[in-house]
Amino acid sequence: MTEPPKPGTLEMPEPTGGPGWYELGSVEALADRPVREVRIGRLRLALTYRDGAFGAISGVCNHVGGPLGEGTLEGEYVVCPWHYWRFERTTGAGEPGYEADRVPSHRVEVREGRVWVDLVPATKRGRLPHKPHALAREPVRAPGPPRVAGISTTVMDTTHPRYSTSEALLEVGLEHAAAMGHETRLLRLRDLHFRNCEGFYSKSARACTWPCSITQMDKRDQLEAVYEAVVHWADVILLASPIRWGSASSLYYKMVERMNCIQNQITIRNKVLMRDKVAAFVITGGQDGVQAVAGQMLGFFAEIGCTFPPFPYVAHTRGWSAEDMEHNVCFVQQSEELRDGTRELVDRALEASRRLLAAPPLGAERMARGGRKAHGLANEMPAQPMEQPAEPIPPLEGTA
Fold first, then answer.
1. What angle in degrees, to the nearest 10, is found between the helix axes of 260-269 and 250-258?
2. Biggest distance spanned by C-alpha atoms of the chain
3. Which of 57, 144, 182, 302 could form a disulfide with 177 if both were Cys (CB 3.0 to 4.6 A apart)?
C-alpha cells in the first residue's frame, strides 16, 4: 500500500522503454510552484523551479524517507517537511557542513517548451555518519533495588512558589522510598524548559521518531531528563497532578503528548522501550474529577508498556462546591491519612516492581501485541520508497 498523493503531485506512468529521458509536461504547467512531487511509477522526484530554471533531485530524504517533493524551497535548498533536512535543489548536496549527506540528482532539460528529466541519476546518494543520540541506546536495567522516579506536573511561578498538595504528597512518597534504601529522583516539569509536541506524527507515523525529533534537533529542549528517567532509569514512575477543570495539569498533557514517540515505536516497529515498569499516581484538587484524571493516566501509561499495583492511585478532593482552596491546602497539610496512603501506594508499587523484576521476561512479540494493537493496524504502514536506516537528526543551528 502506497501513500496517497498530495494535491499538486504529478503522477506519471512507468516508462515503457526503461530508464532514460522522460517527458513530464509543459513549462507553463510545471512552473507554477517552487517545489512539486513527481511520481513516475515507483520513482519519486522533487522537481523545483526558481529563477527560470528547473531542478530535480530524489524525492526521498536521507533521514527517514521524508517526501522532499512536499517540502519547501529556501533559496537553493529543498527543505524536507518532516525534520527540515536541506538539499541543494539541482545537485542534491546537503546544506553547508553536510554536503556529503546528499540525495541523487537528475538532469533536467527544456525542449520546445516541454520539460524532460533523465530518470538515470546523475549523482549517487551519500550519507555522513551521525553519532546516535544518547537516548537511542538499548534500554538495559542496571542491577539493584527498584528505582523510583517522581514527576510533579504542578504549574507555578517559580519566583514566587506556593504550596502544591499533589507535589507535597509526591515528596512524602519519595522520602518513604528513599528511607527504605531505594534510589529516587524528583523531576518538576515546571523547572524543565521543553517545547510542545509539534505534530510530527500528524505528518506521518514514520516522522515521529525515537528519540523524539525535537529532542534530537534542539539541544536546549530539556524533556530529555524525563525520557532518560522513564525509559532508561526508573522501575517505578510516581506521577503527581492537580485537578484542573476535571482534567490533569496542562504540564502533564504537554509531557505525555511528547511521550507519544515512545508509544509510536510499538505501533510502527513492534519495539517496546519500557519493560517491567510500574506506574502509580497522586491526584489532588479542590473540586471533583479524580476518576477522569486517573482514567486518562491509566490508559496512557498502559499504552506505553507500564503495569500498575493494586489500587494504583491515591487521591483527594473536597468536591464540586469546595471553592475555598486555602482550606483544601490546610486539610492536606494536616492529613496524616493522606500521607500514610501515599506511603502505602509506594509500598504497593515497589512490591509490584520486585515481582516483575523477579519473573522471567515476557517475550517481545507477546508484549508488543498484548494491548489494543493485538491485531494488525487497520491501515498497514506503507512501505518506504527505499531501504534506509533512520539517521540521528543533526541539531538545528543556534541550539548548541
1. 30
2. 87
3. 182
**Helices assigned H by DSSP within the chain:** 27-30, 165-179, 200-203, 213-217, 224-227, 250-258, 260-269, 290-303, 325-334, 336-358, 364-368
Question: How far apart are the C-alpha atoms of 148 and 236, rounded to whole Å?
Answer: 5
| Gap between the Cα atoms of 262 and 274, Å rounded | 8
For residue 220, the enclosing domain spans: 134-364
263 and 144 within one domain: yes
221-225, 233-237, 268-272, 343-347: least confidently modelled range = 268-272
Position 125: which residue type? R
Domain contains 4: no
Cell numbers found for residue 233: 532509569
Residue with cell 516539569: 189
What are the two backbone dihedrals, phi and then psi, of residue 239, each rounded to the nearest 5 degrees?
-115, 135
Write down the pLDDT at residue 398.
42
* Pairing mode, strands 277-285 and 306-307: parallel
307 strand-pairing partners: 278
DSSP label at 126? B
Which pLDDT band, with edges at 50, 70 and 90, does 399 fall under?
very low
Rounded distance between C-alpha atoms, residue 349 and residue 145, angstroms:
13
For residues 146 and 377, what is the distance between their CA atoms, to the nearest angstrom? 35
Which grid coordinates are listed for 16?
Answer: 515503457
Grid cell digits, residue 42: 515507483
Question: If DSSP codes are grouped into helix, strand and coil, which group holds residue 91?
Answer: coil
pLDDT at 391: 55
CATH value at residue 102:
2.102.10.10
The Cα–Cα gap between 74 and 325 comes to 53
Q: d(Cα 260, Cα 253) in Å, to the nearest integer?
A: 11
